[in-house]
Design a protein that fits this description.
The protein is of the alpha/beta class. It contains 16 helices and 13 strands.
Length: 345
């Protein structure tokens, strides 16, 4: 049945191409409602950058087809709507040739796999949530008994934690740990908090690393000898998988409040990417290391399961740099970023 429906869509693509934008738009609206319910029309309009009249008409059609329902709080997706979303995703990817693009990108970057999040919304936070949902789904798919999973901090990882579906891994002896020390003041984006949220949703154990990375090398070496710190560092040393956000170097300059001369030094070295306390140039060469505790680059090189998540076209160079470090990388990115990376070929 699914194959027949897809064949019909392919015929429509050829004979009635003007229907496809409507199909894609309704799919995106349904996806937005599912991630944000309850939600109102104005919020959908802002996320998609569409006029409220267009959104109102599309919402009315979705309601007529019993794919959503509306109450005083806002809109919700029905069970039938969720089934449509689940089944339509593969059609969307094929119609947009995203499955082909994923393979092309994986070959270009010489990594294990690329997963592209479909959609061209105007809201970067919504795109992060869609990428976070994909990352959560992929992480769940690789979890096995006695696994230790490292998680870094950042807004994208926080989105993954938020979208992680609940499951029960209480009998699998899985442990979630922060992969490195904390950075910044926002608790929601700290690796500790993200690791705890994910572990609670998966009903597995977790450990916390109560240590900031903005400490002197001498102080860090002393603190590492504390029993509670040594215990968590032993877990990190034995990671089986790592999920991390990929950042632009210049953005991390600001987050770390680097001084002007330091920034100029890193720019002069060609720093374009940052991941787990290392700055890299476009060839994936280390140009600087931050005083930090947690996963080191040697570990990263040898991990079998590494999941990198990034959104935004401005991260194309950073992605290319990080992809050179471990061919086992599974990269989760948005549609626009995928296009920006391919433009560098």
């Amino acid at each position: 049945m699914e194959s027949i429906l897809y064949d019909i869509l392919m015929v429509e693509k050829i004979l009635v191409p003007e229907l496809l934008p409507v199909f894609f738009r309704r799919y995106e609206i349904l996806t937005i409602i599912s991630l944000n319910e309850p939600i109102g029309r104005r919020s959908i309009s802002n996320i998609l950058g569409l006029g409220e009249k267009i959104v109102r008409n599309e919402v009315a059609r979705l309601q007529e087809e019993s794919l959503i329902y509306i109450n005083s709080q806002g809109m919700y997706v029905t069970d039938e709507g969720r089934n449509i979303l689940k089944n339509a995703e593969s059609w969307i990817n094929k119609l947009k040739a995203l499955d082909y693009t994923e393979k092309e990108l994986a070959e270009f970057l010489s990594i294990r796999k690329v997963i592209i999040v479909s959609g061209n919304t105007k809201d970067p936070l919504h795109i992060k949530r869609m990428a976070g949902k994909k990352a959560a789904e992929h992480l769940k798919s690789i979890l096995t008994e006695d696994m230790i999973v490292g998680i870094t901090g950042g807004t994208t990882m926080a989105a993954m934690a938020k979208e992680m579906p609940k499951a029960n891994y209480s009998n699998k002896n899985i442990t979630i740990v922060p992969a490195r020390g904390g950075l910044g003041v926002n608790a929601e984006t700290q690796a500790n908090n993200i690791a705890a949220v994910i572990a609670q949703k998966l009903h597995c154990s977790y450990k916390l690393l109560h240590l900031t990375e903005n400490l002197s090398k001498e102080l860090l070496e002393t603190i590492k000898e504390y029993p509670e710190i040594k215990e968590i560092l032993e877990y990190i040393k034995n990671l089986n998988a790592l999920v991390f956000g990929i950042g632009r170097a210049d953005v991390m300059f600001a987050r770390r409040n680097l001084k002007k001369d330091r920034i100029e030094f890193l720019k002069g070295k060609g720093a374009v990417a940052e991941a787990f306390g290392y700055y890299f140039d476009e060839k994936g060469k280390i140009v600087d290391v931050v005083n930090t505790v947690g996963i080191n680059l040697e570990q990263y090189y040898n991990l079998d399961h590494v999941i990198g998540v990034a959104t935004g076209v401005e991260k194309a160079q950073a992605i290319i740099a990080i992809s050179k470090l471990n061919s086992n990388l599974v990269l989760i990115i948005d549609e626009a970023l995928a296009g920006a990376i391919l433009e560098t070929k």
